[in-house]
Structure formats: C-alpha cells, structure tokens
Specification:
296 residues, alpha/beta, TIM Barrel, 10 helices, 8 strands, 12% strand
Length: 296
Amino acid sequence: MIDHVNATTTPPDCPGPAANPRGPGTFKVPKGAVDTHAHVIGVPPDYPLVPNRSYTAPAAPAEKYLAMLDGTGMTYGVLIQVSVHGTDNRLMLETLRANPKRLRGVAVVDLGKSDEYYSELKEAGVTGLRINVLYGGGVSIDLLEKYGDLCAEMGWHLQFLLDTRNLPDLAPRIRKLRVPIVVDHMGHFPAAEGVASPGFQELLRLVSEGAWVKLSGAYRLSAPFYRETVPLARALAVAAPDRCVWGSDWPHVANWHHMPNVGELLDLFGEWIPDENLRRRILADNAQLLYGFPLV
C-alpha cells in the first residue's frame, strides 16, 4: 500500500514511531548489524521544514534513534537526510559528528557548493548522496549525471528513492554512472504487482549487474502485515546476496496506517531471509562494506 500525498495540499501530520522498540523474536541479531536506513527530524524554527514537503512528521531526535538501535540489538546505523528538511543537512551532520564510531550518513545537497563544504560532509561521516524522485524536498533527477560526477569525485555512492514502474526509462542513464548505486525500499512500488512486473524485473537486472538494494520500507509497498513483500525480498536476495542490506526506515514517516515496531519488521526480515548465514551477510557483512564500518 502506497500513499502519495499531493504536495500542493496542506502537508498532513503523520504519527511518530511505535514506543518501546524491540528486537526480533524469531532470530538473534548478529554482532555488527547495521540499520542502513533511518532519519532524524528536527523542530522548527531551529530546523525548518520545506514548504513543498509531502507530510509533517513529529520530532525524531538522535537520542531516540540511538535508543532504538540499542533496543533492537543493532551495532551501527545509517542516517538518510529526510525529505522534510530538504538540503539542510545540519541535524543529520550534528548527529553524525556526535557518534562517529556508530553512525554514517547519506546527504541531500545542492550542486555548486564549495569543495570545503563537500569535504566537511565526508569528514562528518557522509558516504553517499540521495536523489528522491517521489517526495518533495529532494533534488532533481534531471541532474542525475552531475550528481554521479560529484559522487565519483568524493568517493561516494548514489542512492535513489524511486518507483520501479519508472525504472525502465531511468535504467539506461543509471547504468552509465561511474559510482555504486543503491535503490531504496525494494523499489518502492505496489508489492501486489509482483516479481513479474516490468519495473521489478528491471530492478533485478540492475542489482544482478552490480547495484545495491535496501530490503526495507515494507509498509510503503504493502498493506499490513506486508505478506506481499516476501517474494520480492527473496528474489532480490537471490539476485544479489552480496549487495542486499536491511533498514528499519525509522521513524516510519508518511505512514498513516499500522505503525510497526522495529522488532516486527525484523521478524518479517527473518521470514524474507530464513537462512541464518545469509541474514548475517545482509544485516552485517554487506552493510559494513558499503558504509565503511569496521568489520565485526
């Protein structure tokens, strides 16, 4: 189930994450596990929200995110610049600098900034940039190649929030980039369309050729309790077992339905990936490599 809110209307409030996050009940989280997708969200006026946002989220401060990592047994975390803050990465960068051993980040930036600015991002722990095609507050897909050049210069990857139904048109451009590619949320499309849908088949080709993909965002793809996501995750893990990573998508923004506990999502991951060795690769080994964490 996917709800795209018209950014020209008043951005609706969305609820905060479930209280008391827990680990999975069906398997043990391995040492060195990485939550590769989460956001910190500030409060205006200190951290303004962009006017063209698709939703208004409650505050999600660093201490709550770190408590979630602790409560679920995750060793490391990766913060993704949230769309409601646009290209104002300050809160994310402050959080990275305060937790250099535990956190990395993916920024959303304007082109044409100084070399010093981009270097400061890298020194803070930024390892990639994000192009958000779906929600307000992102940067234009028209500048894809220029962002690819910037990532190549900085040694970063380029991450995409897109709908796989648009991927057949975008894939030729993506394939020409000279940097690692990461696709969010299993392609962020209605899971009911299934593995055989043209866009998802294009995603499978991309990841088999070298792209990375996040097994995350189940609530964005399917109605609770996300049964339709199982074949998608398993197909991606078969196509690229060394380039799949997992993310909580905390605090689960733009969600007006069932608010999952992260432990519930980890239990779902256990169903996606029943093999213990492959679960460890996806939760720990692959993500440590992609984001530059010390190998555990």
